[in-house]
Structure formats: structure tokens, C-alpha cells
Request: fold
Amino acid sequence: MIKVPVFVRLLLSLAVLATLTACNSGATAAPPSNPTTAPGTAAPAGTSAGGTTAPGGTTAPGLRHIRLPMGFTPSVQFAPFYVAIEKGYFASEGLAIDFDYSYETDGVQLVGAGTLPFAIVSGEQVLLARAQSLPVVYVMDWFQKFPVAVIANASAGIKTPADLRGKRIGTPELAGANFIGMRALLAKAGVASAEVTVSAIGFNQASALQSGQVDAAVVYANNEPIRLTAQGVALSVINVSDYVSLAANGILTNEDTVAKNPDLIRAFLRAFAHGLSDSIANPAEAYTISKKYVTNLTDDAVEQKVLAATIDMWKAPHLGLSDPAAWETMQQTLLDTKLLSQAQDLSKTYTNEFVP
Amino acid sequence: MAAVPNQSNYESPLPGRPAWRWLVLPLSVIAGVALWEAVVRLNHFPAFILPLPGLVWQRFVTLLASGDLAWHASITLGEVLGGLGLGLLVATTLGYLIAKSPGLDRALTPYLVASQAVPIVAIAPLLVIWFGSGLRSKVLICALIVFFPILINTVVGLRSVEPDLHELMRSLRATRWQMFAKLDVPAALPVWLAGLKVGATLAVIGAVVGELVGADRGLGFLINFGRGQYDMALVFVAVTALVAIALALYGLVSLLERWLLRWKN
Reply:
């Protein structure tokens, strides 16, 4: 008979109890609101509810705080949000936004788990998530043009997708928006995957291109090309959106919110759409407001060019509508690259019913 | 004679018949898996938060059958062994030189210690930029991560030799090689092997960090890929494979230790 000392038995039971209790409470408790915004969120003139997201978390009572995963570090590209907050559009809908600049996949999982109501995502993330039974729904298309481009040194003579035949292409990873955009581009141009060499180079596209590790690199069209050109590098740029239409960045929510709280979605999208249209109409004002939230902007000229290039991708006759053809192409590209093994029900993947 | 627990290192903490000893590990693994299953079911976790053990097992079997798991694991193992070998060589050589030369010690040690304060995850992207996203950068990251523990253990091990023994060897007109092979090496070996144990498990971390930054193959790549696909089961399979590699390396070094230090018993 093994004699287990009393204190060992006690410790073991306490450990098991603690684990089970922690698991249960951890699953139901929402993560604490994590305000990671820049300072300088002044109350806009003329509104009573000036609640926004100062680091102290002091806001007007009655505003519902929404933690929003952005999928990238603070950037002028998020101008519509900064403008909407600064002008009180979110506040007048009873909402306060707390920015969370964490990685894209974490945001999707939190929305899928029901912990957060919204996240910013790229189209392919929605299909990949739904394939793993995450109950997420894309409710507004923000970027009408897929923001990915393939760049090369101007001297390399790579001006069209067909020129990529036989070349070495570098992409940050073998998945994600960059990879998908590149694959869709090649497919449209009739270049088979066996005719190019693709390697994962991390987010070091510029240095990989300069050092000759790769002939072409996949980047975001409104970022690297502008910054590299400003540094005097001569580039040739092939925009994916010039050749193929893919479902791009937009607002994500979950089926639970769609069913139980559609008014929240409408409120959120109204405020966002207002900020978006204001940014498109007045880029200079949008830039000035963004500087309060993106604190380390050193080169105004370059950053304004980045904003202008980004605004160009947002423009549409009716802001926010998803294009069915873009979703079809996105799904087909994912299936062809074997990143998706089964076609998803697109009618459940995205919806235009909440677009203001 | 009263039954007094044996004082040797490998005795089970529970007194009793020896047969019980062999059941502790398998039983604890089963208990762990059962707890995992219970936690998932009690909390109704969906697969993308915490998959059931059964799902992870399924993924494991599929990957094993297709040969993918073995292929990715061999890539990572190659990086680990390469990095371990490189780090071992440089660290042991440098450690020997530092232990024997106080001047070199004073000159180099501050920089070596400072270099350890830099987190490897911050350096890894730089190394991938400078050395490309192929095998080289991963081996280098591994080597960097194992360098310090082995260096310190080499120095400490060599310094643990009493100066009197050196005097004795010199008085017996031993050559430098004889002093090295008959005195320094056996004296430093236990401590050095302890450093190797630490290094072997750290090397696995180094390989994964390198792959997470930029790679298109290996277990770290599988982890990233799984994350991108919301396939948590795949992430678990890759992590388990990494644990297995680390444990295997640790076990091999332990065996090496027992063989090399058999003269102690």
C-alpha cells in the first residue's frame, strides 16, 4: 500500500481545484479593456459625449468600449478610425474604440471565440477561419482594391506578371495576404507555380531585393514602393489589383453579434463609414488628425504619399459594399493553392446588409 | 533491517515495490491527457481555442503517414545539430582560452556577458536579413543561443582544477598535451556536460525562433502555418514534435555523460 502523505494529497487536490476554477472563470471573463492609443484625444467641439480613449481610460459614462484588433502597428492607413474618433462619430453612436495593435490572426480568433465583437482583417482570413469552424462574418469592405504588389529593381525588366516566369520571388511567408495576392496574380497571367521559385523571407523584402537574394518581392503597394522610392531606389511595381479582384481588408464580426446585436454592427459601421468618407474627401485633415495617434511620423511628405496611395484603394461608388466576384476569386485562389481544402458557403462568409 | 529509502539519484520518491516506479510516468501522462480532455469538454472550448486530444492525435497520424512530419522534423533537427555543433566548438575553444589566460578573460568577458543581455528574438530578424532565410541563419541563431551556457561551464569546469594538481603534473614533467588530456579534460568534463545538457535543449528554441522569423520548412514553419490556418491541432503536433526532439537530445547527452564519467563510479 503506497503511503501518500496527507499534505501531498491536500496539495494535489488544491492544484486540481485551482486549475478547474481558473479554466472556468478564464473562459467566461472577457479580457480587460486594453487602451493602447496615443495621447491627445481631445473632446471634439460641439459634442457632449467627448468620450474617447486616453491612456487613463477616463471616458464619459454610458459609452460602450470596443477593443479593436487592427492587425498592424499604428499607421496613417487607419486614418478613418482616427478621424471618426476625433470628430465624435463613434461617441455619438455610444461607442469608444480601444485600439489593439496585435497580429491579425489573434484578432480573428478572439472574434470567433466571441470575446471581441469586431476586428480588421483581410478577406482570405475569413475563409480560412470559417474552414476551421470559426463563426465569423465579414460585414464591410474597406479596401476595394487588394493592397498587395510585386516589386523589383527597375533594371530587372519585370514589368508585367508574365515577366515573373523563371524568377525568384520573395514573400514574407507562404500564406497570408501577400502570398495569396501573388498567387492570384500569377494565376491570372497564366504563370504556373512551377515556373517561379517562391521563398519565405520574412518582412525583409527590401533588403532581400537589394542584396539580390530574390528577383522580385511581394509587398503592400501603399507602403514599401513609396518608402523605397523616397530613398532613391528605382523600382518597377506590379499591382495585383490591376489584374485581379480579390476580397481585401474589411471589418469582421461574429455570427452571435449578427444574430443578437445587429444594431451594434450598424452603429459601428455608420461611424466608421463617416470617418472613411471624411478621410477620402479631405486627406490633409485626415493626416493632421492621424499624427495625434501615430506618434513617430518623421517624414511628412512620405507619410502623406502613403496616405494618398491608401485612400486611392478605398474609393468606391458606394463605400463598404463587398463584391461577390472578388470573393469568388479569393476562394478559388485559396482552393488552387491548397490553403483551403473545401469551398465555403460565401453567403455566410460576408454580407452587405449592415453597410450604411 | 528497516526499509530506508535508497539515497541514490534515480530512486522513485515513493517507497514501495520497484514495479510501481515504471508506472509513474505512463500514469501521469494518461492523467495529463485526461485532464486536458476534461478541461476542453467542461469549458466547451472550440477546436481553434484548445483542440481535444483526439483531434491532435488525428492530425499527428495524418502528418506522420504523409511523411510531412518526418520531413519538417528532420529540417529542424538538422538546424539544431548544426547550431549545437558550431556553438559547442566556438564556446569550448573560447572557454579554454579564457580559462587559461587572465588577460583574455578581462578583455572578452564583459562583451560576452553583455551579448547575452540581447534577447535572441530581437536579433533573429537581423540575422535573417544578413544571412538569408535559408539554413545558415537558423544554424547561427542556434549557435548563438547555446554559446553562453557552454562557454561559462567550460570556464568554470577548467577553473575547478586545483592549482596543486597542475604543479604536480609539471613536477612530473608532463607535456602540455598530457596536462590537457589527463587533467583538464577529466576535471572539466562533468561541468561541461551539464552545460551541454542545457545547450541541447536551448538549441531547439533557437531553431524554432529562426524559423518563426522567416522559413518555408521546419517545425517552426509548421507552427506559423498552423496559426495562419487556425489549425491549432497542427500547432500542437509541431510543438509536441519539438518537445520530443529536445527530450531525445537531453537523453542522448545523459547517456554520453554516463559513459564518459563511468570512471567516477
